[in-house]
Amino acid sequence: MIQSKLMTRFYFDGQGFDAKSDETVLDTLIREGQQVNYSCKKGSCKTCLVKHVDGALSTGSQRGLTLSLKRDHYLCACQCKPTSGLKLKSVLAQNLFTSAQIHSKQYLSDSVVKLRLKSSEKINHCPGQYINVRRFDGLTRSYAITNDPLDGFIELHIKRKYNGQFSDWLFNHASVGESLLLQGPWGNCCYSTTYVDDDISLIASGTGLGLVYGIALDALKSGHQGQINLYHGGRTSDDLYLHSSMLQLMLAHRNFTYHGCITRSQSKEALSMSRVQLGDPFDIAMMYFPVQVKPDSKSRHRVYLCGEPDFVLKGQTSVFLNGVALNRIHVLSFDYKDLRSMSRT
Ligand code: FES
């Protein structure tokens, strides 16, 4: 009895649930054994979307959603604190996903494949955003978009992960013509023409390169005037999977410079590759940063970071301490990658 007073009763698909005081809607549904989609629990991946039917919505329930999703009463179950009598309902996949097919597959290295997807409806996006990809059995993952929307395709760089159920399927088994579902795009780690005179550092690890490469192309195509430095980190030179494209881009644009950064000592041959240095991409990038004691709002420096969460967090701290204001640091962290089609047990 005392317990129920501390609980907040809300309704999902007509069924009543009692949330504990520190729980979100998603937490309660998971605890109650409901089959719900979720992954990041941070409001990033948007796989936990549900619809608002009635009752008061807690602040932040719709944070990060597009205007049209807000207008259509969607919210993130992981960001919603239940209020008494709140009524929510589940959503059908077809209301959120667009059908698409694999248009082409190109292997960029032994472990990275480039996919071009053609969607049935036009998807407006920019390089720097990400999209959720769902296959026939409901398994879903998120990937960074690497191209601009003008050619009508969605381009993704997929790294085959050890034991990666989805990435291995895309890399080895999915064929051209394979049907997929797409949800998104999300995120705003994009270039803007208002940055035209800024000096930009693009720092990425692994397939984060695809995203920063797309941003570099977008900036150069928009007539960017400031200097652009792109740092790509990998363990060995084999991980620098767009090395020759980067060199060509350098030749074509006097304000674009590429730095391949490898962290594992290799043969002299590997290290003699043009523009490859031994070292952490942040340590190498810092060598080119103007040294400032504290973040300077007048600085023309702007930084984009993309890769695994640890890498991005380390980079954010590092560039902030080197004088780049937080509003000039743009990040896309791969912490939304582990999307589930079923609830975790
Ligand atoms: S947005 Fe809710 S689980 Fe990712």
What does this structure look like?
Its cofactor is [2Fe-2S] cluster. Residues 95-192 form the FAD-binding FR-type domain. Keywords: Monooxygenase, Oxidoreductase, Ubiquinone. This is Methane/phenol monooxygenase/ferrodoxin-NAD+ reductase [2Fe-2S]-component. One of its GO terms (molecular function) is monooxygenase activity. The structure is a single chain. The chain has 345 residues and is of the alpha/beta class. The chain has 3 domains: 2-93, Ubiquitin-like (UB roll), CATH 3.10.20; 97-186, Beta Barrel (Elongation Factor Tu (Ef-tu), domain 3), CATH 2.40.30.10; 193-333, 3-Layer(aba) Sandwich (Rossmann fold). It is 23% helix and 29% strand. The strands form 3 sheets. The chain has a 6-stranded antiparallel β-sheet. Strands 15-14-13-12-16-17 form a 6-stranded parallel β-sheet, with helices on both faces. A 5-stranded mixed β-sheet has the order 2-1-5-3-4. It is globular and about 65 Å long. The relative contact order is 0.12. It binds FE2/S2 (inorganic) cluster (FES). The site of FE2/S2 (inorganic) cluster has 12 residues, from loops.
List keywords for this structure.
345 residues, alpha/beta, Ubiquitin-like (UB roll), Elongation Factor Tu (Ef-tu), domain 3, Rossmann fold, 3 domains, six-stranded antiparallel β-sheet, six-stranded parallel β-sheet, 29% strand, disordered C terminus, binds FE2/S2 (inorganic) cluster, iron-sulfur cluster binding, monooxygenase activity, Methane/phenol monooxygenase/ferrodoxin-NAD+ reductase [2Fe-2S]-component, oxidoreductase, FNR_nucleotide-bd
